């Protein structure tokens, strides 16, 4: 099972990127989490750039990565009580073209890491609503909201001698494990098809009327 992991922060030492790296160690057997590092290269969505003749190379790379994945993990900070613009922009590109969008039917886990105590849930609520409107299947809570993230992520040396971010908070690690297992079960069950079925039926009915 191929899962695409995306961090919603472009900062080099981002807690969200560290959390995304850490949850890879908690993936169930058979799940491979590949990190995508190119959402900062995406231009702002502009339909003039999105034509039948093609789209900018970073867009094609992003859409292909989403389309080829069995599911997604999006780990994002909260900016101004919502999701960062870079996350919304990436979702916008992956939601087009409407009849064949890369996001259609994808099962998605969302998480947030924050250095404070009171942030995160607004971002996850807004991101879930946006993904739902893009016909993706969002795994429900309990969510991973990693508050005071600096104290809950530590670097641990792996077998190759590399320092790897690791969750040292047992409660957060349990929640992340539950979410990843739920994602695996949703992908195996084809749950994402329920999210996109009404749209596909709508287009199919329209084609039938016009034939």
From TrEMBL:
<dbReference type="GO" id="GO:0005829">
    <property type="term" value="C:cytosol"/>
</dbReference>
<dbReference type="Pfam" id="PF03358">
    <property type="entry name" value="FMN_red"/>
</dbReference>
<feature type="domain" description="NADPH-dependent FMN reductase-like">
    <location>
        <begin position="1"/>
        <end position="150"/>
    </location>
</feature>
<dbReference type="InterPro" id="IPR050712">
    <property type="entry name" value="NAD(P)H-dep_reductase"/>
</dbReference>
<dbReference type="GO" id="GO:0016491">
    <property type="term" value="F:oxidoreductase activity"/>
</dbReference>
<dbReference type="GO" id="GO:0010181">
    <property type="term" value="F:FMN binding"/>
</dbReference>
<dbReference type="InterPro" id="IPR005025">
    <property type="entry name" value="FMN_Rdtase-like_dom"/>
</dbReference>
<protein>
    <recommendedName>
        <fullName>NADPH-dependent FMN reductase-like domain-containing protein</fullName>
    </recommendedName>
</protein>
<dbReference type="InterPro" id="IPR029039">
    <property type="entry name" value="Flavoprotein-like_sf"/>
</dbReference>
């Amino acid at each position: 099972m191929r899962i695409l992991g995306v961090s919603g922060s472009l900062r080099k030492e981002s807690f969200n990127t560290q959390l995304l790296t850490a949850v890879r160690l908690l993936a169930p057997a058979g799940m491979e989490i590949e990190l995508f590092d190119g959402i900062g290269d995406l231009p702002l969505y502009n339909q003039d750039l999105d034509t039948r003749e093609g789209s900018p190379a970073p867009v094609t790379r992003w859409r292909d990565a989403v389309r080829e994945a069995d599911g997604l993990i999006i780990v994002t900070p909260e900016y101004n009580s919502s999701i960062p613009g870079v996350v919304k922009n990436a979702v916008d590109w992956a939601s087009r073209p409407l009849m064949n969008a890369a996001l259609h039917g994808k099962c998605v886990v969302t998480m947030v890491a924050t250095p404070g105590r009171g942030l995160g849930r607004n971002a996850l609520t807004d991101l879930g609503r946006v993904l739902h409107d893009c016909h993706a299947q969002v795994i429900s809570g309990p969510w991973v909201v990693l508050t005071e993230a600096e104290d809950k992520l530590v670097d641990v040396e792996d077998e190759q001698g590399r320092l790897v971010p690791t969750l040292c908070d047992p409660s957060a690690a349990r929640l992340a494990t539950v979410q990843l297992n739920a994602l695996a079960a949703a992908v195996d069950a084809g749950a994402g098809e329920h999210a996109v079925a009404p749209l596909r039926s709508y287009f199919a009915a329209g084609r039938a009327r016009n034939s």
